[in-house]
């Protein structure tokens, strides 16, 4: 069975808590708080004013540049203020506050459930619609999707790689989406293939989701050029570069984008959003997220409008469990621990994981015994032990030479370290510093020109 | 209730230093059983003294000299003691064992800062120190299968000495006195207590590979190199190749060294290619010492020499990166 | 005999040849350097801290020798005496700068700024600051992991376990600026030391609006600008909800300290402290006035006990106690 070639680890997947739980819609909040930064790139610029009435799907903020995405109102009501609110890490972010009144949608949005598989639009029109709908990669990185669909001159896309891997332990939202809304995802794939002018799409699904593999294979048979590739279980298979390696056997060079090897990668949730945007005129205003954990009363997959406070979803799932030590936004491998549970859900929020106190505390690190397990585990072929040591010694130049910028933050090194050394903590710090040095160097070079 | 916040990842494999050390200790158990069968009580006593004094010295040094938290729970001192004992004759006087343990832990490990900091394998440092300081006692091995309580020693020409002579004189007759291949494979020969049974050591080695405690790179590269060179030497000297190669692989510390000593995490290279080069280096040096050197056995020296090369290998050999392009 | 003679001769000749070669090479590649650079380097402290802006003492010495005047060149570690010596060597007048000291602009101690989460990652401010807001709700204040302590080469800054904040040892501080550079939140400022160490400092850098800042920390500057109104020297600016006192303009009248409603402004090393608008003000004032009679600015433990015994120790009083103990 296919998988990526270098490194990787096998964390316990713990998906049993929320797997096969029907997607449940979360009731509308009283007040929606919509952050202006829900994507990679320039922040969106607000186009509404205090006191203005808005409908569901109306543009609240327009894209702040090419690599940016507009933000639409997920609720109907009155804009009360544009102010700062705290994000999951307790840092301030600009938000639009809306008092919810009823649930009135823009008239052009098709809210029926009927499958609309026919699309007569030109590729350019499809991309324009995706851009206008504010669609970003819902796998976690939130990179604006329309940018991926417009390859730079000289590069051509050959194959669409669909990410149905969901390699993060605990999370099941993509799995459930494939089971419940597979047909829509297939139409989304067709749309992206049409937009890119390609005839081939491969859906990568890990073998711990046999029902999804079977369901998607059956559907794929009805769609020309689409095939499903079952993949062996290994983390971080959902990483863009790893997935391309696993599905089509090509390795994206260091520092390059997938388009370099002719691939475009999209998550199944993104493709579902593309279907809704193009065929139903519905912009990206909600997503499916997993709320799970060992002692959560009602773990499950919840469809949540952006701007809903996370506490609303937690209430629906039976409240914060007694023994909670840590709450993680996303999965346990790459998700960020939260400081503030009042934060509004956004495009980035693939899940909330409640870890018990016992699971939350790190074990005291011991000396590095140079067992080289981190070297074997690193999916990018780096030497984490060395990078961490250099970072602690603030030797940024050497870190750059050892390609720290290739690091994808997957956490395999720390996961596998028998001495429990905080390798990734230091590597991430070094990556930030080296990134800053590189940017400063580029700026200086540009200034010279 | 205050939430706990820490950087990702929030999951861990559950692996620990202690688990790895314990795996190696478990893997060494068959060899210890064979040693007890072959050499009787002496094997158990020597092992017990070695392990106990290694742990004691580590505890004393961390407690009174370094004034740190004790690390004896990670079992690395136990493993060092076990490996040191395996490199000693079962009838060695107890005080020599204690000196060996002191050198292994005190000089070989703690003087560099403890676990993970030592450039040389501590057990081998202790062993080589004893070999040079007490050459007679260290090379007087009891004969196997003399009964449980027998502690009488008997010095004899070891297979390795005979082989060295045979290579020198190109005289196949000298090999006629060698123990049979089965004897040397199963461990019914004279030698240091843990080294004798290639079979038991191989079983432990397979356990280590299955539990992913070690990777195949170092043992396989050592054994392959040794096989190739032993075969070449035998062919050039006109000796029976199969006997020569077989005895080379089974006799002396070859198996113990290749599977347990050379694969020591701390002192072996970090990358797979580095490990292969390291293994080939050990294989080459051990054959050179065995055939032309002053000592009949060269595994300890070979490993120590390549230990010294390890930092160099770590510096120049990097793993293959994802998406690395050929220049 | 012959052998000894021959070896002596051979070695002797080799030695002489090598000596000649070394001398020739040394002459050939000799770099002409101003001898004064060495002299200047001699008188520098040799800490290589980089506080002067040059990369180490050698580089600073080179800069001094190259420069046409010593204006703007200052070794913060050695201070005026060192610069006078440098001036003597170079025959230039040393420009005496004001002595400076590192000042921690955060007073968010444990009482004023309660913990809202538990950090469980690597305890360095650099990593914590990239991860999240910190263990309290203040996104600007001290993270308390002590990166500044680690950065200090002079053992001049320490964490106070009671307040969780760093305390500068003004005797040892050389104002090299390493701590200020290490602080990811830019709390530490290298500031004019002031007469007898007396200086006015806004001990807060929270840029949040007043209500939010106050909610996160009782000692926060809320940007109310009362200090600016009372300042007769026009030394205070309020930008982004936080006041800043220009040390050059400040006349140390301490009106701002009295006007500050949250106690964010402090007269550091003041013989006594004035408080206003707070219930504990009177008590704190009498308590603080006592050591003034001793004249050395140090707090008596008896006075500290007195404050601690106050019926309702308010935040200000407690702060004073904490500070007294820290000194």
Q: If you had to describe this structure to a student in words, what would you say it looks like?
A:
The complex is a heterotrimer of chains A (449), B (327) and C (327). Chain A has 449 residues and is α/β, with parallel strands linked by helices. Chain A is built from 13 helices and 17 strands. In chain A, the strands form four sheets. A six-stranded mixed beta sheet of chain A has the order 1-14-13-17-15-16. In chain A, strands 2-8-7-4 form a four-stranded antiparallel beta sheet, with no helix packed on it. Chain A has a four-stranded parallel beta sheet with strand order 11-10-9-12, with helices on both faces. In chain A, helix 3 runs parallel beside helix 4, helix 3 packs across helix 6 and helix 10 crosses helix 13. The N and C termini of chain A lie far apart (51 Å). With 327 residues, chain B is mainly alpha-helical. Chain B has two domains: 122 residues, no CATH class; 158 residues, no CATH class. Chain B is built from 14 helices and one strand; from the N terminus they run βαααααααααααααα. Chain C is of the alpha+beta class and 327 residues long. Chain C folds into three domains: 55 residues, 3-methyladenine DNA Glycosylase II, Chain A, domain 3, CATH 1.10.15; 171 residues, Alpha-Beta Plaits (2-Layer Sandwich), CATH 3.30.70; 56 residues, no CATH class. In chain C, 41% of the residues are buried. Chains in contact: A-B, A-C, B-C. At the B-C interface, strand 1 of B face strand 2 of C. Strand 1 of chain B pairs parallel with strand 2 of chain C.
For this entry, give a set of tags:
heterotrimer; A: 449 residues; alpha/beta; Rossmann fold; Ubiquitin-like (UB roll); 4 domains; 6-stranded mixed β-sheet; 4-stranded antiparallel β-sheet; 17 strands; 30% helix; globular; C: alpha+beta; Alpha-Beta Plaits; 3 domains; two-stranded antiparallel ribbon; 9 strands; 39% helix; disordered C terminus
Compile the SSE list and pairings.
The complex is a heterotrimer of chains A (449), B (327) and C (327).
Chain A: E1 24-25, E2 31-35, E3 45-46, E4 53-54, E5 59-62, E6 71-72, E7 77-86, E8 92-100, H1 123-132, H2 145-148, E9 159-163, H3 173-196, E10 201-206, H4 210-220, E11 226-231, H5 240-248, E12 263-267, H6 268-280, E13 286-293, E14 300-305, H7 310-316, E15 324-329, E16 336-337, E17 351-356, H8 357-360, H9 373-377, H10 384-392, H11 396-401, H12 412-416, H13 423-448
Parallel strand pairs in A: 1-14, 9-10, 9-12, 10-11, 13-17
Antiparallel strand pairs in A: 2-8, 3-5, 4-7, 5-6, 7-8, 13-14, 15-16, 15-17
Chain B: E1 3-5, H1 17-39, H2 41-65, H3 76-86, H4 94-109, H5 122-133, H6 135-138, H7 159-169, H8 181-186, H9 198-210, H10 217-237, H11 241-250, H12 254-261, H13 272-292, H14 299-316
Chain C: H1 2-28, H2 35-43, H3 57-66, H4 79-90, E1 100-104, E2 117-119, H5 125-131, H6 147-151, E3 157-160, E4 165-168, H7 178-182, E5 188-192, E6 199-202, H8 210-216, H9 226-230, E7 236-239, E8 242-245, H10 255-259, E9 265-268, H11 281-294, H12 301-308, H13 315-326
Antiparallel strand pairs in C: 1-5, 3-4, 6-9, 7-8
